[in-house]
Design a protein that fits this description.
This protein is α+β, with helices and mostly antiparallel strands. The protein is built from eleven helices and 14 strands. The protein has two domains: 176 residues, no CATH class; 188 residues, Nucleotidyltransferase, domain 5 (2-Layer Sandwich), CATH 3.30.420.
Length: 385
């Protein structure tokens, strides 16, 4: 299983200048390669290399750096074409799609640049790296990270690492191949109901209330509205800072929730049953005030965190269809729209059970998860001789 580990570089003034100049040089080169690919409609990396490699070498880039620039550009166009085929940029003729198709892809001056083991080496005992730059190779460049992150790097780092710059601070993001834990046989399943008022509710009793996070987002939305009205350079700079800050806050909250859920399943020897929420933004119709909350909540991110943490811990996990889970009684299975009295209250019209609506839905999902696991696991019946 692939995960990424981020370390912070601690360069001196000369080293920081060399790193900054390197990123700007390779991204300027990537913009030129992108124009060549767009004008000549070069579909393959090998053909693009024939058009650009010699010129990149003449500009002073090393062999590996030139190869990575070309590959970065080709990967960007591959992603663009995949998004176009999937309809993620709108229908044919739409403004957004026409804008994406009508000009070359551009790279920011501080955009990430990939490094492989030929142009980047790690010294874990001294916590330093040796890295290629346009000004020559920098040796003994210190980096800082958590003790757990350093351990993961030592044991599992494999493949490329990306050099990026954020607000004048340099980071290396390394790819690590972490082995998955052996999956155990679950003694039962824990249903996880995801929502906006309550971010996550499990059938074991854990509930991550979304009230605090929703208040935070509402406040950030009001501040963004004020800044957007100003339309000044400083306002735009503040908007970017706040956007990054909000993403970090939400990501941290999702990490905490996912870790709590997976740890509870591991402790009890149970599996996890999650809702399949792909495409929810296109399926669900809401009033305009509710759309902001729906579209700003990271449904996929929380689910992805739960999935990868479960795989690392060996916790069995299944995705189930969430249809009518909010209207189905966990006790008798009766489905009725009138069962859901309010957002938080559930009362079955058939058996009379009264429960918290999200808690009831989590029990429904737990039962569906157990059914899906039983239907999908390998048969243990002895073969006939």
């Amino acid at each position: 299983m692939k995960i990424v580990t981020q370390v912070k570089l601690i360069p001196d003034a000369a080293q920081a200048s060399a790193l900054s100049a390197t990123l700007r040089t390779v991204n300027d080169a990537a913009n030129w390669v992108s124009e060549v690919a767009f004008v000549n409609d070069v579909p393959r990396e090998y053909e693009l290399r024939k058009h650009t490699y010699a010129q990149l070498k003449e500009q002073g880039l090393g062999a590996q750096a030139a190869q990575h620039v070309i590959k970065k550009v080709r990967d960007a166009y591959t992603t663009l074409h995949a998004n176009l085929r999937a309809g993620n940029l709108g229908r044919k003729g739409s403004k957004r799609r026409v804008k994406a198709e009508s000009k070359p892809i551009t790279f920011r001056p501080e955009a990430a640049q990939p490094y492989d083991d030929r142009c980047l080496s790690w010294q874990y005992d001294t916590q330093t790296v040796s890295i290629w730059t346009t000004a020559g190779r920098i040796k003994d460049l210190s980096f800082a990270c958590a003790a757990d992150a350093l351990k993961v790097l030592q044991l599992h780092r494999k493949g490329e690492s990306d050099l990026i710059e954020r607000n004048g601070v340099f980071y290396l993001i390394a790819t690590c191949e972490v082995p998955e834990a052996e999956q155990y046989e679950p003694g039962g399943f824990i249903g996880v109901d995801l929502g906006i008022v309550n971010i996550a509710t499990t059938s074991t009793g854990y509930q991550a209330a979304g009230r605090r996070l929703n208040r935070y987002r509402k406040r950030q939305l009001a501040l963004r509205t004020k800044l957007q009205k100003r339309r000044t350079k400083s306002a735009k700079r503040r908007l970017k800072e706040r956007s990054r800050r909000e993403r970090r806050h939400v990501k941290n909250s999702n990490h905490i929730i996912a870790k709590t859920i997976v740890t509870e399943a591991e402790r009890t020897g149970g599996g996890l049953s999650l809702e399949e929420l792909k495409g929810i933004r296109t399926r669900v119709r809401l009033r305009k005030p509710q759309r902001v909350a729906l579209h700003s909540w990271a449904f996929a991110q929380l689910a992805d965190f739960i999935v990868y943490k479960a795989r690392r811990a060996g916790v069995p996990l299944v995705f189930v269809d969430p249809a009518y889970s909010s209207k189905e009684c966990a006790e008798c299975g009766h489905v009725d729209r009138l069962n859901r009295i309010s957002q938080a209250r559930f009362a079955c019209r058939s058996c009379g059970v009264v429960a918290h609506a999200d808690r009831n839905a989590s029990h429904v999902l737990a039962r569906r998860g157990a059914t899906a696991w039983a239907a999908g696991r390998e048969s243990r019946v002895p073969s006939i001789p």
